[in-house]
Amino acid sequence: MNPKEMMKLKPMMEEFRDRHPRFVEFFSYAGQSITEDSLIEIAITDADGKKIITNMRVAPEDLELFALMRSMLG
Fold first, then answer.
1. How far apart, in whole angstroms, are the C-alpha atoms of residue 26 and residue 48?
2. Are 65 and 6 in contact, with CB atoms under 8 Å apart?
3. Rounded distance, CA 74 to CA 72, Å?
4. Coil, helix or strand for 32?
5. For the whole model, what pTM was predicted?
6. Each residue of 4-63: pLDDT tens digit?
7. At 1, is the secondary structure helix, strand, or coil?
8. SS3 track for 36-67
9. What angle do CA 33, 39, 42 make, to 5 degrees?
10. pLDDT of residue 44
11. Residues near 69 by beta carbon (within 8 Å), at least 6 away in sequence
12. Judging by DSSP bridges, how do beta strands 51-57 and 39-45 pair with one another?
């Protein structure tokens, strides 16, 4: 990511937090429970009602990325 794009990220994250406070609260809370071998499942339902679901098992190498993402949201 180039520095110009990174500078745009902070205000975008703040606006996202303002629009979706419960979503951010959920990830702040749930993120504390993510450990190695945790299973994360994500479901998206589009406007037509079609669901897309995936999941992943957390590897030790993923934990640093999740910690960084938590710090960006919180």
1. 25
2. no
3. 6
4. coil
5. 0.68
6. 887 888 898 889 889 999 988 888 788 888 999 999 999 999 999 999 999 999 999 999
7. coil
8. CCCEEEEEEECCCCCEEEEEEECCHHHHHHHH
9. 100
10. 97
11. 27, 31
12. antiparallel
Residue with tokens 């993120």: 31
Residue 2's SS3 state is coil
Residue 59 tokens read as: 């590897």
User: What is the C-alpha to C-alpha distance for residues 48 and 46, in angstroms, rounded to an integer?
Assistant: 5
Alpha carbon distances (Å) from 63 to 8, 18, 31, 39, 50 = 25, 26, 10, 13, 31
Place of tokens 């994500």: 42
Look at the alpha carbons of 42, 26, 12, 72 in this order and tell me if their dihedral is positive or negative: negative
